[in-house]
Amino acid sequence: MLGSIQNEKSTSAQNIRWRIQIIQVKLLKVQRGEREMKTIVFLNNKGGVGKTASVTTIAHMLAARHGMRVLVADIDPQGNASNLFGTTDFIQLIKARREDVRRKETYHIGDLLVSTELDPREVIRKTAYDGLWLLPSYPTLAAIEEKLKADIRHPQQFRLKEQLDRVRGDYDFCLIDCAPSLSILNINALVAADEVYIPTLTDDGSLFGIELTMTELVDEVKRYAGNLSVGGIFFTKFRSKLGISRYAQELLDAVYSELILPFTINENVAVAECSHKHMPLLAYDPGMKVKATRDYAALTAYIAAKQEAEGRNA
Ligand SMILES: Nc1ncnc2c1ncn2[C@@H]1O[C@H](COP(=O)(O)OP(=O)(O)OP(=O)(O)O)[C@@H](O)[C@H]1O
Ligand SMILES: [Mg+2]
């Protein structure tokens, strides 16, 4: 009994020492102006697998539970992450378009991709949440894609990376939300990223989405953007009663077993409800009563701890 109390005490003393060391390393880096942003992209070529839910929930948790300064970059023309954080004033946007004027409030991530002179700080907006900023999307981002492909003066894959590099010192993390496509926009997201996480459902289409994402995007980008590594694959909207199909299990065991993370996000209606209420999940369920909130908290803690460890080993 006494031994176990002493063990607990020494573990908590070790934890405190560890946290103090982390804070010291962080302070030193801030003093030296060396704070480096880690950029993570959430991608699966299949739609509706929980990319936006993961980005918005984990970004907010990194800020609210881990004291990180986080930028959400929304490179999906659907703009679902931008919508959730509610920074887009659609009435203002529609009026501005009708009057054919570009107001500063209508700047979005696409403007940064086509205009290298534009400063990202003019486009990034503070959200209502402490420590959380947004680089918003806009429906016309889809048209920007065509402009990018047509412009051969300047390498098209590196546009987002070059712009995010200009704010590397301002944030601890940048999380990028992507559309389900193999587009030049998603290639820009991967080139800018240090790590890619792949959320998936357990159906055949989502699993094939992993295959396409890995072979058509990740492997291609890795050839010329040496920084990129695969953080892992995790299941979302998981229903334990249905479990995982035998086919899915076989495919994962055969091809991706070493990439499957020990984190699964359970299905819960709160995840869908919070986006309708324009709130990140933890703000909607601050007491973490919902299992999916606790699942995301565990995955977020892993992502934060990994970054701390990388900082210590750097
Ligand atoms: N764990 C969950 N439990 C219940 N509903 C969820 C969960 N995760 C996501 N959803 C809901 O499923 C739908 C699709 O999720 P989400 O928008 O995050 O997917 P996505 O991969 O970003 O989709 P797209 O490819 O269209 O961008 C949304 O209505 C979302 O609220
Ligand atoms: Mg989405």
Automatic annotation (TrEMBL):
Superkingdom as given in the UniProt entry: Bacteria
Pfam families, alphabetized: AAA_31
The AAA domain sits at 37-223
- Enumerate the InterPro entries for this protein: AAA_dom, DNA_Partitioning_ATPase, P-loop_NTPase
PANTHER family in UniProt: P-LOOP CONTAINING NUCLEOSIDE TRIPHOSPHATE HYDROLASE, PARA FAMILY PROTEIN CT_582
Descriptive protein name: AAA domain-containing protein
